[in-house]
Specification:
Chain lengths: 434, 142
Amino acid sequence: MIWSKEETLPREEIEALQLSRLQETVHRVYEKVPAYRKKMEDAGVRPEDIQSLSDLAKLPFVTKQDMRDTYPFGLFAVEKDKLVRIHASSGTTGKPTVVGYTQGDLDTWTECVSRIACMGGASAKDVAQICFGYGMFTGALGLHYGLENIGAAIVPSSTGNSQKQIMYMQDFETSLLVATPSYALRLAEVAGEMGVDPEKDLKVKIALVGSELLTDAMREEMHKYWGKDLLITSNYGMSELMGPGVSGECLEHCGMHINEDYFIPEIIDPKTGEVLPAGEQGELVITCIKKEGLPLIRYRTKDITRLFYEPCKCGRTLCRMENLSGRSDDMLKIRGVNVFPSQIEEVILSVEELGPHYEIILEREGYLDKLTVKVELAHSTDSFSVLEKIAKEVKDKLKVILGLDARVLLESPNTLQRFEGKAKRVKDLRNLSH
Amino acid sequence: MFAKQLTVFIENRAGRLSEVLSVLKENKVNILSMSLADTTEYGLLRLIVDNATLGKEKLIENGFSSLLSDVSIIKIAHTAGSLQTLLKVIDKGGVNIEYMYGLSIESEDAYVVLKASDSEKIDEILNANGVKTLSCEDLAHI
């Protein structure tokens, strides 16, 4: 089902709407946010210079650092008493980034997530269990109100207490699961331990996953546990921009539709900042054109993707962003080679004898980086040759894909750490100063 | 006749072997013989116990990778040359031995635990040559 008619507007109409909303937003932040006015003055651009969508490129970028520099409310475009909600990022390094919403912003957010939910196959009939952590993190509440808005029954179970989660799924007949891909796998594992087969004994038909990359291999692994008919779609967002709801995958599985009447996407070369044509891979930059509280302009997401504007078979005209291949933040530099953890994940998931959990450890020996990958055995064996074959297969595939030698450590089942929220599978112990 | 060997995968980490043994102790599984083979990163602990099925079940419950495999537990005389005599018989039958370790029960006789490349075939060879082997039931009553 398509939730809003705005999702199917002809391209000229989307662009006309985008331009008028962009012009309004730029005028507003220039008037109300001194930090923006200064940035624009430094770049020698005035609000009236924005005459077409391509003029967007004249505006300066905003980065996470800008948000930290103006902590907590320096980039807000409304008085604090207009805010009705405040969220913050986890702030693992230094101060968190703070985001605030007016009532209008919350309505926008709910609208955007309702669309995403419908794209993933959700409807009023669903019982939606939200296994994202409630709290300062935007994921849970974003999905909560968006799904409630379409009429689904919400089970706000949050993360943790996995056995109880499975009990709710059985007793409430949960049909829709909201979780990170890794927690969805963990829940299947716990169900198995309880003697519950997720495919046969539970009624989960839809999974809306986010906050972590969903690689093809991970999707397959989810089907293995939850059944091949589970409708799995990924959705995308970040608290700085709003939370979940920026874009979401439809059932055609050809990328995530961006809610373009609220967000203008661009792809830039992350090194030069130059805007790249549609179809080319680069860093995603998003401009919020209907936000009141925190209307970020040209926000650098650090996510690497591509944009496609061809109409989709689902009937939506909203452009699509390719499912993420990695975040430039997550990229590891190992012996000078750029490595995305998702590449290592794909290798591990391709080996039949291994479970889906893993740990990547980086150490430094002298001047050399050392890569260790810990994996879990899914099947038992009493033969060294089988164990050696498994370790060698992982090692060889990593060598082919990354060009790097890795040490592969086999572990017993259920020994590596499990995650309820975003999985943290990389341990970088190199103490690099940069 | 086959007996069941309990095999456990263990990482080369301090205390890991002790964890396996404590699971067996808690469940009163008695170890009759063992062999521990290792590489630099992991090892395989192979055990002959009085109740292999229970041992496997409890180890898996406790997160160990564990399985049962068919081995022959062969009675030989406690005298010089008896093992070599046995091996001659096996070699002649064309079966390859993957690994082997000892199990001493009585003073006048000894037993060897032997994993052959072909469990069915070695059983035939041993039976044809009148060699005594132990079953799971035998182990349960030691």
